[in-house]
């Protein structure tokens, strides 16, 4: 056995706990076991302060997740609508310009006919 | 009401366990108390060397004995009792550290003084060694404690911790190498 192992043996010896340890264990061992909670007491656990917070938080989260989904879907639909509207306006503007040009051409041709 | 169990140590070699509600009122306390007194040094020592906190070690040791009290009917022999206590104490120590992953790293000045006398050994070396053992990862730390506090062979440690013997040997070897290196650096010119 090396010196290190001998030192470890000396350092890691068994240690007695403070006086009265066995008595403290026996006191705990003989303490009456807590009665089994009835079903309404188990339910009441949910209403105790830390649990109420968790229940409220989980309710809020379970409401917020679908709400966020609906909101996102609505925004997406609205954006698509806006895009379609812009495209339609552009198409109408282009068509309007063309109609205007054709109209002018027709008018010019009409004037030329009357001169002849 | 829970069934009362009476346990007694007979001649230091056998345990008699009887379910006897009538005699329990008189008989169970001294018998179980004898078991606690006989093994408290082992269980508390394991917890203290592992956790380096007297309060936590006491709490953990008490819980181990309370679990023993509940499981006393399953104990078959004194050897089984010692094995059971080592196994439960080791697992509870490792669980305790894992539950408290935020556990602060020990500094040299935070390592508490041992309650036992130093019997002439170098207290500085002991403190440094205790600190270094406390800095080992959980399983190697428990392997080292079981090896040197309980003087167990690798095969016995493997049984207690439920791991292969080769793993125990490798934990031991690596821990000793690490301790040797770190101790040489921490203490300086010490012949190791």
Give me a quick take on this structure.
By secondary structure, chain A is mainly α.
How does the SSE layout of this entry go?
The complex is a heterodimer of chains A (116) and B (192).
Chain A: H1 3-11, H2 21-30, H3 39-45, H4 49-115
Chain B: E1 6-10, E2 14-18, H1 21-51, H2 54-71, H3 78-99, H4 123-134, H5 138-148, H6 154-161, H7 165-187
Antiparallel strand pairs in B: 1-2
Helix pairs in contact in B: 1-2, 1-3, 2-3, 3-5, 4-7, 5-7, 6-7
Question: What report would you give on this structure?
Answer:
The complex is a heterodimer of chains A (116) and B (192). Chain A is an all-alpha fold. Chain A is 80% helix and 0% strand. Chain A is elongated. The mean pLDDT of chain A is 87. Chain B folds into 2 domains: 1-103, RNA polymerase sigma factor, region 2, helix turn helix motif (Rna Polymerase Sigma Factor, Chain: A), CATH 1.10.1740.10; 107-192, Arc Repressor Mutant, subunit A, CATH 1.10.10. Chain B is 65% helix and 5% strand. The longest helix of chain B has 31 residues, at 21-51. In chain B, strand 1 and strand 2 (14-18) form a beta hairpin. Chain B is built from 7 helices and 2 strands; from the N terminus they run ββααααααα.
């Amino acid at each position: 056995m090396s010196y290190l192992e001998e030192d470890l043996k000396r350092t890691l010896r068994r240690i007695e706990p403070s006086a009265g340890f066995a008595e403290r264990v026996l006191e705990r061992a003989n303490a009456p076991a807590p009665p089994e909670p009835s079903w309404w007491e188990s339910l009441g656990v949910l209403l105790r302060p830390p649990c109420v917070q968790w229940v409220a938080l989980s309710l809020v989260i379970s409401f917020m997740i679908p709400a966020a989904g609906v909101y996102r879907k609505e925004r997406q639909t609205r954006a698509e609508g806006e895009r379609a509207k812009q495209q339609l306006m552009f198409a109408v503007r282009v068509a309007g310009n063309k109609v205007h040009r054709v109209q002018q051409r027709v008018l010019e041709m009409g004037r030329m006919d009357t001169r002849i | 009401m829970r069934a009362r169990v009476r346990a007694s140590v007979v001649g230091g070699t056998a345990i008699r366990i009887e379910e006897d509600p009538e005699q329990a009122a008189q008989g169970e306390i001294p018998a179980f108390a004898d078991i606690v007194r006989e093994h408290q040094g082992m269980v508390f020592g394991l917890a203290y060397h592992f956790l380096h906190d007297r309060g936590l070690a006491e709490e953990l040791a008490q819980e181990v004995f309370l679990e023993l009290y509940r499981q006393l009917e399953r104990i078959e022999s004194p050897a089984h009792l010692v094995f059971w206590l080592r196994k439960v104490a080791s697992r509870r120590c490792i669980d305790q550290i894992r539950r408290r992953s935020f556990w602060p790293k020990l500094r040299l000045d935070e390592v508490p003084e041992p309650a036992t006398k130093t019997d002439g050994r170098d207290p500085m070396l002991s403190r440094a060694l205790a600190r270094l053992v406390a800095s080992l990862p959980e399983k190697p730390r428990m392997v080292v404690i079981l090896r040197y506090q309980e003087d167990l062979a690798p095969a016995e440690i493997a049984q207690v911790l439920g791991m292969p013997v080769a793993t125990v040997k490798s934990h031991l070897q690596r821990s000793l190498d690490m301790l040797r290196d770190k101790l040489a650096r921490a203490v300086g010119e010490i012949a190791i």
